[in-house]
## 1
Amino acid sequence: QLQLQESGPGLVKPSETLSLTCTVSGGSISSSSYYWGWIRQPPGKGLEWIGSIYYSGSTYYNPSLKSRVTISVDTSKNQFSLKLSSVTAADTAVYYCARHEGGPDAFDIWGQGTMVTVSS
Amino acid sequence: AIRITQSPSSLSASTGDRVTITCRASQGISSYLAWYQQKPGKAPKLLIYAASTLQSGVPSRFSGSGSGTDFTLTISCLQSEDFATYYCQQYYSYPFTFGPGTKVDIK
């Protein structure tokens, strides 16, 4: 069955760029039905949607993060990626990748999440 | 952005209890609402979408209702594995937004 797996550095210095990749296995990221998204959760807090991308490269971003976020897709590798620039301690969180149908729709499949700490 | 509130923020219950959690949207979202369950250290799990449609594999003791601005998640007979935090999420419009969560713990 379809699985998502986040990867990337667990520690990022303040003012630098956070970079994560989500690898999709058991299915194609190029499926015409689905968008691929990033959601984060600071320690002990709730969930925040960061943005989503379609395999064609079409993106939607959360306006609260839009100036610092870039989401891209690499269909040849069945991966999509997140870049968040100028990070601060407030960006410390578990970052999840997840799938939702276009339309839009709920997130039906999630990665296990990866903890990213912003600290010098 | 559409704001989502949830109540209560936490509750204590016993196995076998009926539990109801409420979610309210700041504007009408039709039935574009999902409910998730999250256990410590784990990713959220989709329980219900379209306000009342049970995701495949989710036990029938979970049910959802509502439309417009007011929604409820009901667990008809709480089981030990149901102690977790529950989030609602609207997908009526971007940006997607989540409620702050309701923690269900053991009385």
## 2
Amino acid sequence: DGGITQSPKYLFRKEGQNVTLSCEQNLNHDAMYWYRQDPGQGLRLIYYSQIVNDFQKGDIAEGYSVSREKKESFPLTVTSAQKNPTAFYLCASSPRGHPNYGYTFGSGTRLTVV
Amino acid sequence: QQQVKQSPQSLIVQKGGISIINCAYENTAFDYFPWYQQFPGKGPALLIAIRPDVSEKKEGRFTISFNKSAKQFSLHIMDSQPGDSATYFCAASETSGSRLTFGEGTQLTVNP
């Protein structure tokens, strides 16, 4: 079945540590997105990519980095510069490089700082 | 950033009742208005979507009403069931854009 796979489901990070969240899709979608979800704050866009080897900052990109070396993969690194990284992270994809055809979301990664 | 304002933040409805969630937008270039449903610990899933050439779209118990002049759209859940308890997000985008703009979300609880 086609879909988006996010891993791991749960991740714990120590202070000062970089961690990478994986997002893989087999939907042949061009665009991929990373969102952060905090209680009561909805979905905030971190980064997005419409084609391979290109990506743009979203609304809350500080402390995060991404790469898009393959169409299927869009990993997110949460760096030590992100002061409050505890949140639920969601990856999404859409066909044809823009969202009017709908997003497909992964099941999310819950990141906790310990 | 173009905003989409969603209300209420939370909603409690009795089983069999009608749940109504409202959204308002500013950008008149928006031409795609989806609703997403999210269960705890899961990613959102597309529920129903509408484009501005129609004023209403119905899929089963879920209906979107769209008022272009008021720049508002709403989700109606008829005969609400406990299994409908979830967080609902409205969103909007434009054909020339590159992203969906989401509302803040509504946590719906349907009591048995």
